[in-house]
Amino acid sequence: MAVYEVLVARTSEILQRWRVIVEGVATPDLVTTIELVDHMPSYLDAVIAALSPSTDRATEDAARAAGHGEQRLRLGFSLDSVVREYGAMSDAIIDTARAANAPMTFDELHSIFSSTINGIAHAVSEYSFQRDAELHRKHDEHTAFLAHELRSPLASAVTACEMLGEAGTLVATDRKAAALTRSLRRITDLVDHSLNAARASAGLDLTRTSTTLSAIITEARSVVDDAAEFKKIDVAVAVETDAPMVIDVRLVRSALGNLLHNAIKYTHTGGHVALRARVAGAHAEIEVEDGCGGIPPGALEQLFMPFVRRNTTEAGFGLGLAIAKQAIDAHGGTIQVRNFLGKGCMFVVELPLGN
User: Fold this and answer.
1) Which pLDDT band, with edges at 50, 70 and 90, does 301 fall under?
2) How far apart are CA 112 and CA 97, in angstroms?
3) Which of 45, 221, 290, 340 has its CA 20 to 30 Å from the CA of residue 153?
4) Cβ atoms within 10 A of the Cβ of 270, count?
């Protein structure tokens, strides 16, 4: 009897041999027999089918193996256990064929080993992807928790500082008072940045509400009033066309606010910043143009990376543009920068209206 026919007739025996090999060696104690065997019968069918010249199951095999890897992560398997499972299946197939006195050709052995290696590759890839995604999610949750817990005591400290100033206990011109106020504001900014970054990168469901393009532009502009007034910068706002939008207002407002804060920060005192918006089909196009003098060649590629600043002499955390990009990406939009050396930069946001 041919190897293919033997394996088709003895699939239950192969699974039993495989189960004996892996139980107690590569299996978490709490995994049931049903969970252990899940995915393997269909994967075994694909391996056996690969021995038939008339059948091509490579794509289905890859999908099964990927699903197996994702399931094994949920069940608490280690990565080496996932690899051992596929090696055990290869051994079980060969042992069953040998027990039936069905000699294997080189091509048949090669087909079994190739299927096993491919199965391991797809399962390990999906296992690693899901594990990394889970670690990233937990990190974002931890960051958001810490940032959220810091907001209340920080708000109390800022309020207390302001009340002391109003009462005359802290003199506005006192250097220590100014340093305290400035430090509290920077810490508050970092906490808010961390919360927004965690929300955007964690892939959480957006809290969408109805607004308009003109309303979100007005809100973003109001966030930078103090900064613009301090540097005597004129912020020219132009909403060419308006339309309803359904977006996460807080995230988008934060993104545009970060773009405007950066524009004001890097524009010379007494300069000009432009904020323009229009509707183009199903998208809103928003432009923030500054007078920073342009960005040196080679620096554009890293501009949206966390902790990268356009000018190392300026104070800040280098998170504004990274958070802005995460917020826009979360909405399915895009953000790009156009560089005008000797003049400035223009950040262009395309944001789906979401209607």
Assistant:
1) low
2) 12
3) 221
4) 10
